[in-house]
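#struct-queue
[09:14] JT: dropping the first one here, sequence first, then the C-alpha coordinates:
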Amino acid sequence: MLLVQLSRFRFSLLFLFIVSFLFNKFLLGFQLLQIQNQYKLIKPGCSVLDLGCAPGAWLQVACQSLGPLKNGGAVVGIDVKKVKVPSLHCDARVQTISADVMKLPKPQVMELSPKKKGFSVILSDMCPSVSGISTRDAALSFELGMRALDLAVGRAMNLSNDNFQNEGESCTCSPYDKGVLLSRGHLVIKLLESEDTKELSQICKPLFKKSTWLRPKATRSSSREIYLICQDLKSQ
Protein backbone atom coordinates (compact mmCIF):
# COMPACT_ATOMS: atom_id res chain seq x y z
CA MET A 1 0.00 0.00 0.00
CA LEU A 2 2.83 2.36 0.90
CA LEU A 3 4.54 1.65 -2.43
CA VAL A 4 1.33 2.49 -4.29
CA GLN A 5 1.02 5.79 -2.43
CA LEU A 6 4.65 6.66 -3.18
CA SER A 7 4.14 5.86 -6.84
CA ARG A 8 1.07 8.08 -6.97
CA PHE A 9 2.95 10.87 -5.21
CA ARG A 10 5.83 10.66 -7.69
CA PHE A 11 3.40 10.61 -10.59
CA SER A 12 1.67 13.71 -9.19
CA LEU A 13 4.99 15.53 -8.87
CA LEU A 14 5.94 14.57 -12.41
CA PHE A 15 2.56 15.70 -13.70
CA LEU A 16 2.85 19.06 -11.93
CA PHE A 17 6.37 19.52 -13.29
CA ILE A 18 5.22 18.84 -16.87
CA VAL A 19 2.23 21.16 -16.53
CA SER A 20 4.43 23.89 -15.03
CA PHE A 21 6.99 23.50 -17.83
CA LEU A 22 4.37 23.67 -20.57
CA PHE A 23 2.63 26.63 -18.91
CA ASN A 24 5.89 28.58 -18.62
CA LYS A 25 6.70 27.80 -22.24
CA PHE A 26 3.26 29.03 -23.26
CA LEU A 27 3.77 32.27 -21.33
CA LEU A 28 7.09 32.85 -23.07
CA GLY A 29 5.49 32.44 -26.47
CA PHE A 30 2.54 34.61 -25.50
CA GLN A 31 4.87 37.49 -24.63
CA LEU A 32 6.25 37.59 -28.16
CA LEU A 33 2.76 37.11 -29.57
CA GLN A 34 1.64 40.28 -27.80
CA ILE A 35 4.72 42.16 -29.01
CA GLN A 36 4.13 40.97 -32.57
CA ASN A 37 0.41 41.76 -32.51
CA GLN A 38 1.05 45.22 -31.12
CA TYR A 39 4.10 46.29 -33.15
CA LYS A 40 4.09 44.00 -36.24
CA LEU A 41 7.89 43.73 -36.17
CA ILE A 42 8.18 40.42 -38.03
CA LYS A 43 6.98 40.62 -41.62
CA PRO A 44 6.73 37.94 -44.33
CA GLY A 45 10.11 37.17 -45.84
CA CYS A 46 12.21 38.89 -43.18
CA SER A 47 15.14 37.41 -41.25
CA VAL A 48 14.97 36.97 -37.47
CA LEU A 49 17.75 36.42 -34.94
CA ASP A 50 16.58 35.00 -31.60
CA LEU A 51 19.18 35.45 -28.84
CA GLY A 52 18.63 33.15 -25.88
CA CYS A 53 16.21 30.99 -27.85
CA ALA A 54 15.67 28.22 -25.27
CA PRO A 55 13.21 26.56 -24.84
CA GLY A 56 12.03 27.45 -28.37
CA ALA A 57 8.68 29.19 -27.91
CA TRP A 58 9.89 32.40 -29.55
CA LEU A 59 11.23 30.40 -32.50
CA GLN A 60 7.71 29.08 -33.05
CA VAL A 61 6.07 32.51 -32.89
CA ALA A 62 8.73 34.03 -35.14
CA CYS A 63 8.36 31.30 -37.75
CA GLN A 64 4.57 31.55 -37.75
CA SER A 65 4.84 35.33 -38.12
CA LEU A 66 6.77 34.85 -41.37
CA GLY A 67 3.67 33.37 -42.94
CA PRO A 68 3.61 30.40 -45.34
CA LEU A 69 6.85 28.73 -46.36
CA LYS A 70 6.51 30.18 -49.87
CA ASN A 71 6.94 33.68 -48.40
CA GLY A 72 10.55 32.90 -47.54
CA GLY A 73 12.39 34.34 -44.58
CA ALA A 74 14.62 32.80 -41.93
CA VAL A 75 14.81 32.37 -38.16
CA VAL A 76 18.13 31.72 -36.43
CA GLY A 77 18.18 30.90 -32.73
CA ILE A 78 21.29 31.07 -30.57
CA ASP A 79 21.56 29.78 -27.02
CA VAL A 80 24.29 28.54 -24.72
CA LYS A 81 22.14 25.42 -24.36
CA LYS A 82 21.60 23.03 -27.22
CA VAL A 83 18.07 23.73 -28.47
CA LYS A 84 16.23 21.40 -30.79
CA VAL A 85 14.02 23.13 -33.34
CA PRO A 86 10.42 22.54 -32.19
CA SER A 87 8.53 20.27 -34.56
CA LEU A 88 5.32 22.20 -33.95
CA HIS A 89 4.88 25.59 -35.68
CA CYS A 90 8.41 25.52 -37.12
CA ASP A 91 9.63 24.58 -40.59
CA ALA A 92 12.82 24.43 -42.65
CA ARG A 93 13.35 28.18 -42.23
CA VAL A 94 14.32 27.72 -38.57
CA GLN A 95 17.77 26.71 -37.35
CA THR A 96 19.48 26.82 -33.96
CA ILE A 97 23.10 27.30 -32.95
CA SER A 98 24.63 26.33 -29.61
CA ALA A 99 27.02 29.12 -28.63
CA ASP A 100 27.72 31.71 -25.94
CA VAL A 101 26.33 34.99 -27.26
CA MET A 102 28.69 36.93 -25.00
CA LYS A 103 31.69 35.45 -26.81
CA LEU A 104 30.33 35.07 -30.34
CA PRO A 105 32.09 37.45 -32.80
CA LYS A 106 29.88 39.69 -34.93
CA PRO A 107 31.32 38.39 -38.24
CA GLN A 108 30.32 34.87 -37.23
CA VAL A 109 26.79 36.01 -36.41
CA MET A 110 26.63 37.86 -39.73
CA GLU A 111 27.56 34.63 -41.50
CA LEU A 112 24.35 33.08 -40.15
CA SER A 113 22.11 35.68 -41.80
CA PRO A 114 20.60 35.25 -45.28
CA LYS A 115 23.18 36.19 -47.93
CA LYS A 116 25.38 37.26 -44.99
CA LYS A 117 23.85 40.74 -45.09
CA GLY A 118 22.26 40.93 -41.64
CA PHE A 119 18.93 40.43 -39.89
CA SER A 120 15.66 42.34 -40.16
CA VAL A 121 14.67 41.67 -36.54
CA ILE A 122 16.73 40.77 -33.47
CA LEU A 123 14.95 39.36 -30.43
CA SER A 124 16.85 39.11 -27.16
CA ASP A 125 15.09 37.02 -24.56
CA MET A 126 18.35 36.37 -22.72
CA CYS A 127 18.12 36.22 -18.95
CA PRO A 128 20.81 35.47 -16.35
CA SER A 129 20.58 32.58 -13.94
CA VAL A 130 18.65 34.24 -11.14
CA SER A 131 20.58 34.30 -7.86
CA GLY A 132 17.92 35.99 -5.76
CA ILE A 133 20.17 39.01 -5.24
CA SER A 134 18.19 41.66 -7.10
CA THR A 135 21.05 44.09 -7.74
CA ARG A 136 23.32 41.34 -9.07
CA ASP A 137 20.61 39.84 -11.27
CA ALA A 138 19.72 43.27 -12.68
CA ALA A 139 23.38 44.02 -13.43
CA LEU A 140 23.80 40.72 -15.29
CA SER A 141 20.57 41.33 -17.19
CA PHE A 142 21.81 44.78 -18.19
CA GLU A 143 25.07 43.24 -19.41
CA LEU A 144 23.16 40.79 -21.59
CA GLY A 145 21.01 43.62 -22.93
CA MET A 146 24.08 45.68 -23.80
CA ARG A 147 25.54 42.69 -25.60
CA ALA A 148 22.37 42.33 -27.67
CA LEU A 149 22.55 46.02 -28.56
CA ASP A 150 26.24 45.73 -29.44
CA LEU A 151 25.55 42.81 -31.76
CA ALA A 152 22.71 44.75 -33.35
CA VAL A 153 24.32 48.15 -33.98
CA GLY A 154 28.05 47.74 -33.32
CA ARG A 155 30.06 50.88 -32.65
CA ALA A 156 27.03 53.07 -33.29
CA MET A 157 25.97 52.42 -29.69
CA ASN A 158 28.95 54.51 -28.57
CA LEU A 159 27.92 57.51 -30.62
CA SER A 160 26.08 60.36 -28.96
CA ASN A 161 23.08 62.22 -30.29
CA ASP A 162 25.34 64.96 -31.64
CA ASN A 163 27.66 62.84 -33.75
CA PHE A 164 25.23 60.13 -34.80
CA GLN A 165 25.07 60.21 -38.58
CA ASN A 166 21.87 61.11 -40.36
CA GLU A 167 20.23 58.82 -42.86
CA GLY A 168 21.89 58.90 -46.25
CA GLU A 169 25.37 59.66 -44.94
CA SER A 170 28.04 57.06 -45.46
CA CYS A 171 29.90 55.38 -42.65
CA THR A 172 33.64 54.74 -42.66
CA CYS A 173 33.28 51.89 -40.17
CA SER A 174 34.85 48.58 -41.06
CA PRO A 175 32.53 45.56 -41.40
CA TYR A 176 33.73 44.44 -37.97
CA ASP A 177 32.52 47.70 -36.39
CA LYS A 178 29.00 47.46 -37.72
CA GLY A 179 26.22 45.45 -36.16
CA VAL A 180 24.20 42.65 -37.70
CA LEU A 181 20.85 44.49 -37.69
CA LEU A 182 19.81 45.83 -41.08
CA SER A 183 18.91 49.47 -41.58
CA ARG A 184 15.26 50.05 -40.58
CA GLY A 185 15.43 46.81 -38.62
CA HIS A 186 13.88 46.22 -35.19
CA LEU A 187 15.34 45.15 -31.86
CA VAL A 188 13.62 43.69 -28.79
CA ILE A 189 15.54 43.38 -25.52
CA LYS A 190 14.31 41.76 -22.32
CA LEU A 191 15.65 43.27 -19.09
CA LEU A 192 15.12 43.03 -15.38
CA GLU A 193 13.83 46.47 -14.48
CA SER A 194 16.32 48.63 -12.57
CA GLU A 195 17.95 52.05 -12.71
CA ASP A 196 20.26 50.75 -15.45
CA THR A 197 17.36 50.12 -17.81
CA LYS A 198 16.95 53.88 -18.22
CA GLU A 199 20.55 54.10 -19.41
CA LEU A 200 19.99 51.48 -22.10
CA SER A 201 16.88 53.31 -23.25
CA GLN A 202 18.85 56.55 -23.58
CA ILE A 203 21.51 54.81 -25.67
CA CYS A 204 18.89 53.36 -28.02
CA LYS A 205 16.86 56.53 -28.41
CA PRO A 206 19.12 58.28 -30.98
CA LEU A 207 19.81 55.05 -32.86
CA PHE A 208 16.20 54.12 -33.62
CA LYS A 209 13.27 56.15 -34.85
CA LYS A 210 11.17 54.89 -31.97
CA SER A 211 11.85 53.09 -28.69
CA THR A 212 9.24 52.15 -26.10
CA TRP A 213 8.90 50.00 -23.00
CA LEU A 214 6.43 47.15 -22.74
CA ARG A 215 5.46 44.83 -19.93
CA PRO A 216 3.52 42.00 -21.64
CA LYS A 217 0.31 40.85 -20.00
CA ALA A 218 1.70 37.31 -19.78
CA THR A 219 4.48 38.48 -17.44
CA ARG A 220 4.00 37.33 -13.85
CA SER A 221 3.03 40.07 -11.41
CA SER A 222 6.06 39.25 -9.24
CA SER A 223 8.49 39.45 -12.16
CA ARG A 224 10.64 42.48 -12.96
CA GLU A 225 10.91 41.52 -16.63
CA ILE A 226 10.33 44.36 -19.05
CA TYR A 227 10.93 44.68 -22.78
CA LEU A 228 12.56 47.51 -24.71
CA ILE A 229 11.05 47.70 -28.20
CA CYS A 230 13.30 49.55 -30.66
CA GLN A 231 11.87 50.20 -34.12
CA ASP A 232 13.46 51.30 -37.40
CA LEU A 233 17.23 51.44 -36.97
CA LYS A 234 18.60 54.61 -38.52
CA SER A 235 21.23 54.31 -41.25
CA GLN A 236 24.73 54.01 -39.83
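[09:21] JT: and here's the second one, same format:
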Amino acid sequence: MAASSSTDRINKETTRKAVNALLRWKKLQLQSDSPNTHKEDNDDFIYLSITLKKIPPKNLIATPHRIPLRYSLLPRDFYLLNLCLIVDGKKIKSELARQKLKSLDMPIKQVLKLSKLKSDYKSFDAKKKLFDSFDMFFAVKDVVPLLPEVLGKVFYKKKRKIPMPVHLSGDCNWKEEIERACTSSLLCLSGGTCSAVRVGRWGVTESKEIVENLFTAIDGVLEIVPKKWGGIRALHLKFSDSLALPIYEHRTKLEAVGKEN
Protein backbone atom coordinates (compact mmCIF):
# COMPACT_ATOMS: atom_id res chain seq x y z
CA MET A 1 0.00 0.00 0.00
CA ALA A 2 1.36 3.43 -0.93
CA ALA A 3 2.17 5.81 1.91
CA SER A 4 -0.31 8.64 2.34
CA SER A 5 0.79 12.15 1.41
CA SER A 6 0.93 15.21 3.64
CA THR A 7 -2.53 16.39 2.55
CA ASP A 8 -4.08 13.14 3.81
CA ARG A 9 -2.93 13.73 7.38
CA ILE A 10 -2.72 17.49 7.83
CA ASN A 11 -5.56 20.00 7.63
CA LYS A 12 -4.66 22.72 5.14
CA GLU A 13 -6.88 25.36 6.77
CA THR A 14 -5.34 24.73 10.19
CA THR A 15 -1.92 25.03 8.62
CA ARG A 16 -2.84 28.28 6.87
CA LYS A 17 -3.99 29.75 10.19
CA ALA A 18 -0.75 28.67 11.87
CA VAL A 19 1.34 30.32 9.14
CA ASN A 20 -0.64 33.56 9.35
CA ALA A 21 -0.35 33.58 13.14
CA LEU A 22 3.43 33.24 12.89
CA LEU A 23 3.66 36.01 10.30
CA ARG A 24 1.60 38.34 12.51
CA TRP A 25 3.84 37.50 15.46
CA LYS A 26 6.97 38.23 13.41
CA LYS A 27 5.61 41.58 12.26
CA LEU A 28 4.86 42.64 15.84
CA GLN A 29 8.27 41.43 16.97
CA LEU A 30 10.06 43.48 14.32
CA GLN A 31 8.04 46.56 15.23
CA SER A 32 9.03 46.24 18.89
CA ASP A 33 12.69 45.30 18.32
CA SER A 34 15.39 47.71 19.42
CA PRO A 35 17.28 49.32 16.51
CA ASN A 36 20.45 48.03 18.17
CA THR A 37 19.42 44.39 17.72
CA HIS A 38 22.39 42.60 16.18
CA LYS A 39 21.73 41.60 12.59
CA GLU A 40 23.39 38.21 13.06
CA ASP A 41 20.88 37.37 15.78
CA ASN A 42 17.99 37.71 13.33
CA ASP A 43 16.59 34.53 11.84
CA ASP A 44 13.84 35.19 9.32
CA PHE A 45 13.07 31.57 8.48
CA ILE A 46 9.94 29.60 9.30
CA TYR A 47 10.80 26.05 10.27
CA LEU A 48 8.96 22.78 10.04
CA SER A 49 9.95 21.09 13.29
CA ILE A 50 9.95 17.31 13.08
CA THR A 51 9.76 15.04 16.12
CA LEU A 52 10.50 11.39 15.38
CA LYS A 53 9.49 8.43 17.49
CA LYS A 54 13.03 7.07 17.51
CA ILE A 55 16.55 8.38 16.96
CA PRO A 56 17.34 7.98 13.24
CA PRO A 57 20.07 5.55 12.15
CA LYS A 58 23.61 6.89 11.80
CA ASN A 59 23.65 6.64 8.01
CA LEU A 60 20.83 9.20 7.84
CA ILE A 61 22.55 11.56 10.29
CA ALA A 62 25.87 11.62 8.44
CA THR A 63 24.91 13.96 5.58
CA PRO A 64 22.30 16.68 4.96
CA HIS A 65 19.30 15.76 2.84
CA ARG A 66 17.97 18.03 0.11
CA ILE A 67 14.24 18.69 0.45
CA PRO A 68 12.45 20.14 -2.60
CA LEU A 69 10.19 23.17 -2.18
CA ARG A 70 7.64 24.81 -4.45
CA TYR A 71 9.05 28.31 -3.86
CA SER A 72 12.64 29.36 -3.26
CA LEU A 73 13.67 30.87 0.07
CA LEU A 74 16.31 32.99 -1.68
CA PRO A 75 15.64 36.66 -2.43
CA ARG A 76 13.82 37.40 -5.67
CA ASP A 77 16.85 38.93 -7.44
CA PHE A 78 18.47 35.52 -7.89
CA TYR A 79 21.04 36.66 -10.45
CA LEU A 80 22.33 39.37 -8.10
CA LEU A 81 23.20 36.89 -5.36
CA ASN A 82 26.72 35.86 -4.41
CA LEU A 83 26.87 32.09 -4.78
CA CYS A 84 29.80 29.73 -4.23
CA LEU A 85 30.36 26.18 -5.48
CA ILE A 86 32.73 23.73 -3.75
CA VAL A 87 34.16 20.94 -5.92
CA ASP A 88 36.52 18.04 -5.28
CA GLY A 89 39.10 19.30 -7.78
CA LYS A 90 39.58 15.79 -9.20
CA LYS A 91 36.40 14.56 -10.84
CA ILE A 92 35.36 18.16 -11.37
CA LYS A 93 38.20 20.63 -11.94
CA SER A 94 37.58 24.13 -10.59
CA GLU A 95 38.66 25.92 -13.79
CA LEU A 96 36.50 23.73 -16.02
CA ALA A 97 33.59 24.26 -13.64
CA ARG A 98 34.04 28.04 -13.87
CA GLN A 99 34.02 27.92 -17.66
CA LYS A 100 30.92 25.75 -17.78
CA LEU A 101 29.00 27.88 -15.29
CA LYS A 102 29.94 31.03 -17.18
CA SER A 103 28.71 29.53 -20.45
CA LEU A 104 25.39 28.70 -18.74
CA ASP A 105 25.08 32.25 -17.36
CA MET A 106 24.82 30.95 -13.80
CA PRO A 107 25.44 33.45 -10.97
CA ILE A 108 28.17 31.39 -9.29
CA LYS A 109 30.72 34.01 -8.29
CA GLN A 110 33.39 31.60 -7.06
CA VAL A 111 34.35 27.94 -7.47
CA LEU A 112 36.51 26.53 -4.66
CA LYS A 113 38.21 23.17 -4.73
CA LEU A 114 38.35 21.20 -1.50
CA SER A 115 42.14 21.33 -1.18
CA LYS A 116 42.12 25.15 -1.39
CA LEU A 117 39.34 25.26 1.18
CA LYS A 118 41.51 23.21 3.54
CA SER A 119 44.68 25.25 2.99
CA ASP A 120 43.35 28.82 2.78
CA TYR A 121 40.51 28.75 5.30
CA LYS A 122 42.00 27.10 8.37
CA SER A 123 41.45 29.89 10.88
CA PHE A 124 38.14 30.90 12.40
CA ASP A 125 38.47 34.40 10.94
CA ALA A 126 39.08 33.06 7.44
CA LYS A 127 36.04 30.79 7.67
CA LYS A 128 33.93 33.65 9.00
CA LYS A 129 35.02 35.88 6.12
CA LEU A 130 34.10 33.16 3.64
CA PHE A 131 30.75 32.65 5.39
CA ASP A 132 29.94 36.36 5.15
CA SER A 133 31.04 36.67 1.52
CA PHE A 134 28.31 34.54 -0.04
CA ASP A 135 24.54 34.22 0.20
CA MET A 136 24.54 30.49 -0.44
CA PHE A 137 26.99 27.64 -0.91
CA PHE A 138 26.71 24.53 -3.06
CA ALA A 139 28.91 21.44 -2.92
CA VAL A 140 29.22 18.42 -5.18
CA LYS A 141 27.90 15.36 -3.39
CA ASP A 142 31.32 13.65 -3.07
CA VAL A 143 32.72 16.37 -0.80
CA VAL A 144 29.60 16.98 1.32
CA PRO A 145 30.50 14.42 4.05
CA LEU A 146 33.94 16.05 4.46
CA LEU A 147 32.73 19.62 4.90
CA PRO A 148 31.72 19.67 8.61
CA GLU A 149 35.34 19.10 9.61
CA VAL A 150 36.69 21.57 7.03
CA LEU A 151 34.19 24.41 7.55
CA GLY A 152 33.60 23.89 11.26
CA LYS A 153 31.23 25.61 13.66
CA VAL A 154 31.08 28.83 11.64
CA PHE A 155 28.93 27.03 9.08
CA TYR A 156 27.44 24.16 11.05
CA LYS A 157 26.65 25.44 14.55
CA LYS A 158 23.51 27.35 13.54
CA LYS A 159 23.17 25.54 10.19
CA ARG A 160 22.43 28.77 8.33
CA LYS A 161 24.70 28.29 5.33
CA ILE A 162 25.44 24.59 5.16
CA PRO A 163 26.43 23.90 1.53
CA MET A 164 23.56 22.53 -0.54
CA PRO A 165 24.43 19.18 -2.17
CA VAL A 166 24.34 19.19 -5.97
CA HIS A 167 24.72 16.21 -8.28
CA LEU A 168 26.96 17.49 -11.07
CA SER A 169 28.38 15.18 -13.68
CA GLY A 170 29.44 15.50 -17.26
CA ASP A 171 26.14 14.34 -18.71
CA CYS A 172 23.70 16.13 -16.38
CA ASN A 173 22.15 19.54 -16.95
CA TRP A 174 24.13 21.72 -14.54
CA LYS A 175 21.80 24.69 -14.87
CA GLU A 176 18.68 22.68 -14.05
CA GLU A 177 20.40 20.96 -11.13
CA ILE A 178 21.58 24.22 -9.56
CA GLU A 179 18.18 25.85 -10.10
CA ARG A 180 16.52 22.87 -8.39
CA ALA A 181 18.98 23.21 -5.52
CA CYS A 182 18.04 26.88 -5.18
CA THR A 183 14.42 25.83 -4.73
CA SER A 184 15.27 23.38 -1.99
CA SER A 185 15.82 23.27 1.74
CA LEU A 186 18.06 21.09 3.89
CA LEU A 187 17.07 18.48 6.43
CA CYS A 188 19.91 17.76 8.84
CA LEU A 189 18.74 14.90 11.03
CA SER A 190 20.15 15.26 14.52
CA GLY A 191 21.47 12.64 16.90
CA GLY A 192 18.19 12.96 18.80
CA THR A 193 14.56 12.77 17.78
CA CYS A 194 14.07 16.46 16.87
CA SER A 195 15.10 18.10 13.60
CA ALA A 196 13.92 21.00 11.46
CA VAL A 197 13.72 22.12 7.85
CA ARG A 198 13.12 25.64 6.53
CA VAL A 199 9.87 26.12 4.64
CA GLY A 200 9.41 29.89 4.58
CA ARG A 201 11.20 33.19 4.97
CA TRP A 202 9.94 36.52 6.23
CA GLY A 203 9.92 39.10 3.45
CA VAL A 204 10.52 36.52 0.73
CA THR A 205 7.70 33.97 0.74
CA GLU A 206 4.04 34.87 1.11
CA SER A 207 1.60 33.01 3.33
CA LYS A 208 0.14 30.80 0.59
CA GLU A 209 3.64 30.01 -0.70
CA ILE A 210 4.76 28.94 2.77
CA VAL A 211 1.75 26.61 3.03
CA GLU A 212 2.58 25.03 -0.34
CA ASN A 213 6.25 24.75 0.63
CA LEU A 214 5.23 23.06 3.86
CA PHE A 215 3.22 20.31 2.21
CA THR A 216 5.89 19.77 -0.43
CA ALA A 217 8.58 19.59 2.27
CA ILE A 218 6.62 17.08 4.35
CA ASP A 219 6.34 14.77 1.36
CA GLY A 220 10.11 15.11 0.91
CA VAL A 221 10.76 14.36 4.58
CA LEU A 222 8.57 11.25 4.36
CA GLU A 223 10.90 9.90 1.67
CA ILE A 224 13.81 10.05 4.12
CA VAL A 225 12.64 9.24 7.65
CA PRO A 226 12.29 5.56 8.56
CA LYS A 227 8.73 4.14 8.40
CA LYS A 228 7.44 7.39 6.84
CA TRP A 229 4.34 8.51 8.83
CA GLY A 230 4.89 5.58 11.16
CA GLY A 231 8.15 7.15 12.31
CA ILE A 232 6.81 10.67 12.97
CA ARG A 233 5.48 11.63 16.40
CA ALA A 234 4.67 15.30 15.75
CA LEU A 235 5.10 18.23 13.38
CA HIS A 236 5.17 21.90 14.38
CA LEU A 237 5.66 25.27 12.67
CA LYS A 238 7.80 27.99 14.21
CA PHE A 239 10.31 30.78 13.87
CA SER A 240 13.53 30.04 15.73
CA ASP A 241 12.43 32.21 18.67
CA SER A 242 8.63 31.78 18.56
CA LEU A 243 6.24 29.31 20.08
CA ALA A 244 5.91 26.08 18.11
CA LEU A 245 2.43 25.69 16.64
CA PRO A 246 1.29 22.07 16.24
CA ILE A 247 0.05 20.89 12.85
CA TYR A 248 0.25 17.12 13.35
CA GLU A 249 0.45 14.72 16.28
CA HIS A 250 0.46 10.95 16.09
CA ARG A 251 -2.13 9.26 18.26
CA THR A 252 -2.63 5.60 18.91
CA LYS A 253 -6.10 4.18 18.34
CA LEU A 254 -6.63 4.10 22.10
CA GLU A 255 -5.69 7.78 22.46
CA ALA A 256 -7.96 8.74 19.56
CA VAL A 257 -10.92 6.92 21.09
CA GLY A 258 -10.24 8.54 24.46
CA LYS A 259 -10.23 12.00 22.88
CA GLU A 260 -13.52 11.36 21.08
CA ASN A 261 -15.13 10.27 24.36
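[09:30] RK: nice, looked through the second one.
[09:31] RK: Residues 12-32 form the longest helix (21 residues).
[09:31] JT: good to know. The two ends are 30 Å apart (CA to CA).
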